[in-house]
Amino acid sequence: MKFEDLLLEIGGFGRFQILILFILCLPRINLPMHFLLHNFLAATPSHHCAIPHQAAFVNLTMEEVLLISIPREPDGTFRSCEMFSQPQFQLLLNSSLQPENNSIIQHCQHGWVYDHSQFTSTISTQWDLVCEQRGLNQATATFFFIGVTMGAVVFGYLSDRFGRKAMLLLSLVCSVVFGMLSAASVSYSMLVITRTLTGVALSGVSLIVLPLGMEWVDIQHRTFSGVLTSIFWSIGNMLLAMVAYLVREWHWLLVAVTGPCLLSIVCLWWVPESARWLIANGKVKQAHRHLLRCARMNGRKDFAEDVPLTTYAQRIVLQWEHKKPGKSYSYISLFRTPVLRKISLCSGAVWFGVAFSYYGMSLNLTGFGLNMYLSQFVFGIIEIPAKMVMYVLVNRVGRRQSQAWALILTGLCIGTNVIIPKPFTSLRSVVAIMGKGFSEAAFTTVFLYTSELYPTVLRQNGMGYTSFVARLGGALAPLVFLLDEVWRSLPEVTYCGVAVCCGSVAFLLPETLNVRLPEGIEDME
User: Fold this and answer.
1) What SS3 state is found at 495?
2) Which of 371, 384, 495 is CA-nearest to residue 437?
3) N or C: which end of the chain has fewer CB within 10 A?
4) Same domain membership, residue 150 and residue 272
5) Is residue 121 included in any domain, yes or no?
6) Of 13, 15, 14, 12, which Cα lies nearest the Cα of 2?
7) Looking at the predicted structure, is the pLDDT value of residue 159 above 70?
8) Is 308 helix (H, G, I), strand (E, B) or coil?
9) Residue 312 — very low, low, confident or very high, per pLDDT cuts 50/70/90?
């Protein structure tokens, strides 16, 4: 007997499953508020070198002081990272005659002055992470995703070893603790350490929420459940724009996006452990209790009272044990057999491309001519119709084709914006929004697709491995922005190339549309 057969008997998608999915959507809302927080936490407002006061400046306006103290860019704006070694008073007579002697230009010597009209404070203004320290600013996002990467490995193993619910609770509690410590950071080092640990904790939430919900849902509603859960990521995207607009001080912004984890911890009380995991690990009595609750909530009272569910569960256990006598699985198991090896290598490449291009677009809110708060909000809105379209496509054309073309089109949209001239802001914004929609469609599909590719005994290990690879992509994505010093369009070209190549790899994966979830490795081989 397959577990899906048992689910159909007790109700594969009733009030019980809807309640579970709704509760699990609460932590899902919180994830993008941390994953994309770098846009506002580390935002760099316009700035220029601080000019020390001199007696010669007494009768000059601030504009005139800047004019004689800071060189200008070709477009007439003041440079952010350089100043004159001595005031150039001749510029008061003719400001268009910028000195050609670079020897009188030096880096900022006395700190910076920031424009606080948009942000009260960010980590950039707090610790002067600009100019030569710009790399440290981008590195805060990289350190966070390094934490997420480590968490993917840790929680992928632990949730298969100790259960989905217990590890989800642990990750939520740790997210609150380290999130609040981040808000209380008194140095850049402390912020980096606490944000990295926050990433580790949130990785558990990201990794466990979807499989825990999916393992309670029947085959027919699997796609709907995956898309429904992912919509709440988009809602979190939009909420981040609203919260960041209202809270302009970085300490309190961290508190505001961490607080909702407390609600998720409370609501998790009503979420049961995965009966599929319990049965796979021989914990039949606990599985029976949850299955009985499911049957009653879904209106299958006669079945719950008359049919001994324990017998069904034991038969499933015996079947699984016959397939895998005394075996324990690890990440190495993902590469031991030919079919699993191919799936693991290809899905890893797809996940890398999806995350790399998604965060490449999501962390570049100012590159398309829109206000950054509006960009964040619009990027969140466009994800919802993208998910709706993918809900239809993955059931009509299949997971594989949907995954491949969504990622390839993401790369083509990014590449198109390299060609479109900067003054065409409206056109660039439209193409960027389309690219963001394709990017989210690729992300929505890859979560669903991957959870169907791996057998139950390795599902969380598989999700942990692919999430690890994805977070490597997420960690590298912010650093790629620094390549604009080599060539202005090099970051976009890089995102485009990786997305198209990784999207093409998806064609090598097997189709899983309307296929039973494999229970053991033998089901796949």
Assistant:
1) helix
2) 384
3) C
4) yes
5) no
6) 12
7) yes
8) coil
9) low
